[in-house]
């Protein structure tokens, strides 16, 4: 019988606390909610939907301004027809080695292009979005970043958004 070796789960909370401690930040406080997020069914099949992407991997196109480290609540618009070789990543909270080798591990643009070409997804939005994960100010995330991204996705007439937290 072939047994599957299971690795222990990644200790994200412990790693995050250690990272913030090393950066000299005050203790990281996780957002906790008493309410479950509302479940919304797709209004049409995925194969007929326009798909958007939001990644917190700090991805940007060469020539755009890179993200800054502390509480950067800006976002970058990435055209979905961009040459993948022009994509860069900067981030303080994860090892960038893999992202700099293959940007798709934090921003799966090539995979999504293949899914659209194969008809799994109806089409890709003309623009995907990225931001910096690990933003310390929840209020600014809610009031600035999330509001801007929701507005951009609505203007792009996106039916469904793939969120890629890093």
SSE blueprint:
Elements lengths: L11 H12 L26 E6 L3 E3 L13 E5 L7 E3 L7 H5 L7 H9 L5 E2 L2 E5 L6 H18 L4 E5 L2
Parallel strand pairs: 1-5, 1-6, 1-7
Antiparallel strand pairs: 2-4, 3-6
How does this structure look, described?
With about 170 residues, this protein is α/β, with parallel strands linked by helices. Helix content is about 25%, strand content about 15%. The protein has 4 helices and 7 strands. Strands 1, 3, 5, 6 and 7 form a 5-stranded mixed sheet that branches. It has a two-stranded antiparallel sheet with strand order 2-4. About 20% of the residues are buried. The model has no long low-confidence stretch (mean pLDDT about 85).
List keywords for this structure.
166 residues; alpha/beta; 4 helices
Portion of residues within helices: 25-40%
Uncertain stretches: none
Number of helices: 4
Listing every helix as H and every strand as E from the N terminus to the C terminus, the arrangement reads: HEEEEHHEEHE
Strand content: 15-25%
Gross morphology is globular
Distance between the termini: 36 Å
- The whole-number mean of residue pLDDT values reads 87
**What's the alpha carbon Rg, rounded to whole Å?**
17 Å
Report the major sheet.
5 strands, mixed
Estimated structural class: alpha/beta
Beta strands, count = 7
